[in-house]
Amino acid sequence: MNKAKAIVKKVLSPLPTVPQFLCIGLNYLQHAKEANFPIPEFPLVFSKPADALAGPYEDIEIPAEAKNMDYEAELCVIIGKDLKSPSPSESLDPYILGYSVGNDVSARFWQDPSRSGGQHAFAKSFDRFAPFGPAIISPGTLGDITKLTMTTTVNGELRQKSGLDDLIFSIDQILRHLSMGRTVRAGTVVMTGTPSGVAAFMKPVPRWLVQGDVVEIMLEGVGVIRNTFV
């Protein structure tokens, strides 16, 4: 038996590449209330490109063009095999590789309706704006995900804390909606929405992220990602 010891110098993303990130907006009841938005009838979908991928402990560069920086804690669903138009009676469990936790990093300046036309993707699609990890945990290990808690801290200050039972649309509803008449490729990371407590809606003024801020996002049973903004 080899008794050699190794030192882990860097924890990489659980996936080296992804086809894309599919994301759901406004999917926590308390977040919809803090934003003063109506509860959506269907999941609000946008995407982030493959180059948004970042590791769980990687530094996140704030481009000069990215203003009003915000965090969004997200339960991530990793698709294990191609999914398209499942029948209503078909279980989606075989299509879920596992769960992880991520940060839907956002430049709110570009999300303002006057600049975005109501579209979210451009504000969230800068390089490295989708760190996730630190691992992919099997559904059987986590059990009932609605019993889990997710938190966000910025420089040690608690900003977000929510149970996943506050989700408006379930994982099953989200995946069926995303795969209607279209293929969701294996390796796709589905970000399922963020709870209340984002910087944009803090009072009396938003508290945007700046260079040097450290954002830690924890999902019970999965672990913590920690990213420094530079």
Helical content (DSSP H or I, runs of 4+): 10-25%
Radius of gyration from the CA trace? 17 Å
β-strand percent reads 25-35%
Summed over residues and divided by their number, the pLDDT gives a mean of: 96
Strand arrangement, largest sheet? 2-1-11-5-6-8-3
Bulk shape: globular
Roughly how many Å apart are the termini? 43 Å
Q: How many distinct beta strands?
A: 13
Low-confidence stretches: none
- Which structural class fits the helix and strand makeup? mainly beta
Q: Main β-sheet: number of strands, strand sense, barrel status?
A: 7 strands, mixed
Summed up, the helix count is 4
Q: What is the helix/strand order? A: EHEEEEEEHEHEEHEEE
Layout of helices and strands:
Elements: E1 21-25, H1 29-35, E2 44-48, E3 53-54, E4 69-70, E5 73-79, E6 96-103, E7 106-107, H2 113-116, E8 130-137, H3 139-142, E9 149-154, E10 157-163, H4 171-178, E11 189-191, E12 214-219, E13 223-228
Parallel strand pairs: 1-11, 3-8
Antiparallel strand pairs: 1-2, 4-7, 5-6, 5-11, 6-8, 9-10, 9-12, 12-13
